[in-house]
Design a protein that fits this description.
129 residues, mainly beta, TSP-1 type 1 repeat, 2 domains, two-stranded antiparallel sheet, 1 helix, 6 strands, 26% strand
Length: 129
């Protein structure tokens, strides 16, 4: 018998590349093609799908902050004053990410009423002695 020849694969053209799998940063995209000849007519070892990496502009990164510190002591020993608390920036915003909010907060405080009036100097002098 004469030697049998296998029928070559009949394939459709490649499809267009898909959109990147992400909306920003690194992702993947694919394209496919179809087998047009019947599988039983011969072996077809051609690839039917391809994938490749794709890169879109970097994703926005928002500012990140530490937790607030404890409130400081009131800055006066009597009367009206203020206390503060702070937090640190852990990560600066990048690629259009949200800006950092305030890192210092101030709050009013009142310790005790300051004593005023005649005779206060004498009382302080006695207490100091």
């Amino acid at each position: 018998m004469p030697e049998c020849h296998t029928i070559p694969c009949l394939l459709s053209p490649w499809s267009e590349w898909s959109d990147c799998s992400v909306t920003c940063g690194k992702g993947m995209r694919t394209r496919q093609r179809m087998l047009k000849s019947a599988a039983e007519l011969g072996d077809c070892n051609e690839e039917l799908e391809q994938a490749e990496k794709c890169m879109l502009p970097e994703c926005p990164i928002d500012c990140e902050l530490t937790e607030w510190s404890q409130w400081s002591e009131c800055n006066t020993s009597c009367g009206k004053g203020h206390m503060i608390r702070t937090r640190m920036i852990k990560l600066e915003p990048q690629f259009g990410g949200a800006a950092c909010p305030e890192t210092v907060q101030r709050s009013k405080c009142r310790v005790r009423k300051c004593l005023r009036g005649p005779g206060m100097e004498k009382r302080r002098w006695k207490e100091a002695r």
